Amino acid sequence: MTRIWILPLSLAVCGSLVAAAQFVKGAIGAGVAFLLLSVLLAGLNSPLAFPRSTGAAEAQRRSAVDGRPIVYWRVGCTYCLRLRLRLGRSARRMHWVDIWRDPAGAAAVREVNDGNETVPTVVVAGRPHVNPDPRWVRAQLPPSP
């Protein structure tokens, strides 16, 4: 649980220290800029930037019922963040599994990636796709109700 917060907290703390140093030097504008940038980066690299994760078994069950793709991801993955940001609101129409929180999700990813935990791995209709183009993923979504 704490592993997923190491990167965002590190970004926030380091940015705060740099901002404090800028404030001490009298560069208020630079300090504020560093502080805002570090908070933004921390937020983007935290689990808060992604839709709520479910377990792999639950995601597979739900996907079988509603036909929505499953995205296996982890915090700190720039490719996962790219996919999430490029999908925009469409991301909520998918099932997200954080492989750092769900050992079964990590095992599912290793199974289809030759033992590697390569994310994002998107499963559409039972077929895994590693780091697919976000436009392709959006095209695989069922129509919204």
From TrEMBL:
Pfam families given in the database record? Glutaredoxin
Q: Output the InterPro entries linked to this UniProt entry.
A: Glutaredoxin, Grx-like_ET, Thioredoxin-like_sf
Which SUPFAM superfamilies has this protein been placed in? Thioredoxin-like
- Per the database record, which ranges form the Glutaredoxin domain? 71-127
Regions that span the bilayer: 30-50
Q: What are the protein's UniProt keywords?
A: Membrane, Transmembrane, Transmembrane helix
UniProt xrefs under Gene3D superfamilies: Glutaredoxin (3.40.30.10)
Entry superkingdom: Bacteria
The yes or no answer to whether the keyword Membrane is present is yes
Q: Which PANTHER family match?
A: GLUTAREDOXIN, GLUTAREDOXIN-LIKE PROTEIN NRDH
Q: What is this protein called?
A: Glutaredoxin domain-containing protein
Protein's organism: Streptomyces atroolivaceus
Question: Which lineage is the organism of this entry classified under, starting from the top rank?
Answer: Bacteria, Bacillati, Actinomycetota, Actinomycetes, Kitasatosporales
